[in-house]
Amino acid sequence: MHACTDGKDYWSKGIYREIVPPERIVSTDSFADDRGNVVPATYYGMSSDFPLELLITMTFEEYEGKTKFTLRHSGFPPGAHKDDAQAGWNQSFDKLARSLSNR
Question: Which of 4, 18, 31, 97 could be a cystine partner for 26, CB 3.0 to 4.6 Å?
């Protein structure tokens, strides 16, 4: 991920834990170095209370003839990290929407 705020590159790694077509995808989420090795959040200057692994749950359901997508990213410690992650996900979804609208 290339951060818009500070221009820094952040690498991540995850493992699929569950795939239930067409309902749900569950995976882990960890920080990584540029070689794919899991690293603690302190590697990127974050606090040491940040967990080594978070959980991402994506659900898909039919809603008014379309697909409703819900993402839950859990395991964050209280504070700004959760707000930063929400802003990052929102930026990613904005990019996805722009990409899909160009088709």
Answer: 18
Other CB atoms within 10 Å distance of the CB of residue 21: 7
Q: Distance (Å, rounded) from C-alpha 62 to C-alpha 13?
A: 29
pTM check: above 0.70? yes
Let me know how long the chain is: 103
* pLDDT over threshold 80, residue 78: no
Sign, Cα dihedral of 46, 51, 52, 58 = negative
DSSP codes, 32-45: E-TTS-B--GGGGT
What rounded mean pLDDT belongs to the chain? Answer: 90
Output b/e per residue, 64-83; b: 16+ Cβ within 10 A: eeeeeeeeebeebeeeebee
Give how far the C-alpha of residue 57 lies from the chain's centroid of Cα atoms, to the nearest Å: 10
CB 40 within 8 A of CB 30: no
